[in-house]
Specification:
The protein is of the alpha+beta class. The chain folds into 2 domains: about 80 residues, Helix Hairpins (Orthogonal Bundle); about 160 residues, Immunoglobulin-like, CATH 2.60.40.420. It is built from 4 helices and 10 strands; from the N terminus they run ααββββββββββαα. It has a 5-stranded mixed sheet, covered by helices on one side. Strands 4-10-9-6-7 form a 5-stranded mixed sheet. A hairpin with a 4-residue loop joins strand 6 and strand 7. The longest helix has about 35 residues.
């Protein structure tokens, strides 16, 4: 299993490599916007330069006194409207794709509830019943140097690793419903192109389908108190067989499941680290 497939790196300017179709579509939309914005900046700078050079006091000692130009006024009104309509078309298309749950057999969907707490996450596999209750565990951030730190975490990314990560199968639709026990949090994983608020008293929902196995990282993206910066999300995407093996162990002991997950990563090399694209 690839290790650390998507995580921040120093000096990066672009997005993390996309791990889902949602993220790929967002990247494409960004590329379109970048072209539009660049052309607008060039036009505005060119107009400013023209005005500075052509209409300064030395070059134009007798200024024009007209105050209206119907043609120009229509042009600078219609041009932004057309540009915004063009942007809105692509924007609404991507929002619709993210918001509408894909048409797949519900039996094949992995359903997870992610509850934000100050300052950790509680994950509930709502379809996995253990002793009459859905399987649930708390995912706490790992703080280096503290006693009780799990073995091997010295190699984990700073402020991103957790003791009990979320585990999902590759090429499978995952539905995540978010809520919060105290204040507003936000469940965000950049490589997946997903971000949704976790609000006390209500359920929000997102979905994703990851196309490559690996370890992916996110963070709470809503200011939620003094330890907001230390509320990471770690997701391990594994093969279907490894997921079933992990799930079987997790129903008995989350510690056994953690050891099994660690064994999958032994000898794995980092691949395609997030970087400027």
């Amino acid at each position: 299993m690839p290790a650390m497939a998507d995580q921040p790196v120093d000096g990066a300017l672009g997005f993390q490599p996309a791990a889902t179709q949602i993220a790929e579509r967002i990247h494409s939309f960004h590329s379109i916007l970048l072209v539009i914005i660049t052309l607008i900046v060039i036009l505005v700078m060119a107009l400013l330069l023209y005005v500075i050079l052509r209409h300064n006091e030395k070059a134009n000692p007798v200024p024009s006194k007209f105050s209206h130009n119907t043609t120009i006024e229509i042009a600078w009104t219609l041009a932004p409207v057309i540009i915004l309509m063009f942007v809105a078309f692509f924007s609404f298309r991507e929002l619709y794709y993210q918001d509408v749950f894909p048409d797949v057999d519900e039996v094949e969907v992995v359903n997870i509830k992610a509850q934000g707490n100050q300052w950790n996450w509680t994950y509930t596999y709502t379809d996995v019943i253990v002793d009459d209750y859905p399987m649930e565990f708390v995912s706490n951030p790992i703080h280096r140097g503290f006693e009780g730190e799990p073995d091997g975490t010295f190699e984990a990314p700073r402020n991103l690793a957790v003791d009990l990560p979320l585990v999902v199968p590759v090429d499978t639709v995952v539905r995540v419903q978010t809520a919060a026990s105290d204040v507003i949090h936000s469940f965000a994983v950049p490589a997946f192109g997903v971000k949704v608020d976790a609000v006390p008293g209500r359920l929000n929902e997102l979905w994703f389908r990851v196309e490559e196995t690996g370890t992916y990282f996110g963070q709470c993206s809503e200011l939620c108190g003094k330890d907001h910066a230390f509320m990471p999300i770690e997701i391990h995407v594994v093969s279907q067989s490894d997921y079933e093996a992990w799930l079987e162990r997790a129903q008995g002991s989350v510690l056994d499941a953690r050891e099994f997950l660690a064994s999958l990563s032994e000898g794995a090399q980092p691949v395609q680290l997030a970087s400027a694209q």
